[in-house]
Amino acid sequence: ATLGPGDTVLVPNPAYPIHPYGVVIAGADVSHVPLIPGVDFFDELEKAIVESWPKPKMLIINFPGNPTAQCVELDFFEKIIALAKEHKIWVVHDIAYVDIVFDGYKAPSILQIEGAKDIAVEFFSMSKSYNMPGWRVGYMCGNKELVSALARIKSYMDYGTFAPIQIAAIAALEGPQECVAEICEMYRKRRDVLCDGLTSAGWPVEKPKATMFVWAKIPEAYQAMGSLEFSKKLLAEAKVAVAPGVGFGQYGDDHVRFGLIENEHRTRQAVRGIRNMFKKDGVI
Length: 284
Fold this sequence. Notes:
single chain; alpha/beta; 2 domains
């Protein structure tokens, strides 16, 4: 709806795959911006803007983030909007995990920033907050021109979302919200079991403040393998499936992503399998 051959889009790396590949599908070019510890994201972003020709048309961001679970505060979005306005760049923010937050953290919206609607939109999915994955329903709000572009391409692609799904989404948004807190608490318990279990097994991991993922740095004894081979080893020897970090971009190759999709009992079982693998390898 907004991109084509000759356009360039800025995307953080690591990133959820559809963010860069949606750009590729549209025929545009991707400029990857490192979003990793020890690197100033805004310095890298400014450099990518200045060094790109033609000038980037759009920036796609996602906080709380998948796969890294990285969280930001309002001042981060203030800088994003200021930079985007200075260089006349659209901003698309994926806020799918806004409600899956823990330990008192509250995820801000980029549309809280004054003037953000001049250049930014925000996408929300019903999949996470209301446990409706696969229903393919959500919404976008913000800049009128970008919202109109989405409406235009949707009118060409299909005839609209199946009516019962639309009605269910309305009921979820307008009805009691206790279910959102219950879903969030379920993920918090799973997070605690996984992170505490891995740490006790000799794999220290940081507890994320949001999302349904744990972004775990590969233990030092296995770092030389890279994320793909290490993920294969976990699957074969510990019977645990993780997503290799390289699948989210080159800057993710020293991590793997755990999804908090199993109950606490199964999660403890996974931790035991990993601990046994560590023991066999002499890591602990």
